[in-house]
Specification:
Elements: H1 12-35, H2 43-68
Helix pairs in contact: 1-2
């Protein structure tokens, strides 16, 4: 089992880079699944959930910085 990444410990720049990578993975998975049966049928759902987690963390950081300002 892979080691779980803790998003609260990452910097904002790292989260933005991770978000771009996950969106690209989702895009390629969508196009790959059009031609043939995908090997991992749960990949789309997993990637969407990971993207949502990163967006949530970025949103909470934005809200926290607005509250302190």
């Amino acid at each position: 089992m892979a080691k779980k990444t803790i998003l609260t410990e990452k910097k904002t720049e790292e989260l933005k880079k991770m978000l771009a990578e996950k969106r690209e993975e989702l895009r390629t998975a969508r196009f790959a699944s059009v031609g043939a049966r995908p090997k991992d049928t749960n990949a789309h759902a997993r990637l969407r959930k990971e993207i949502a987690r990163v967006l949530y963390e970025l949103g909470t950081r934005g809200a926290a910085s607005e509250a302190t300002a």
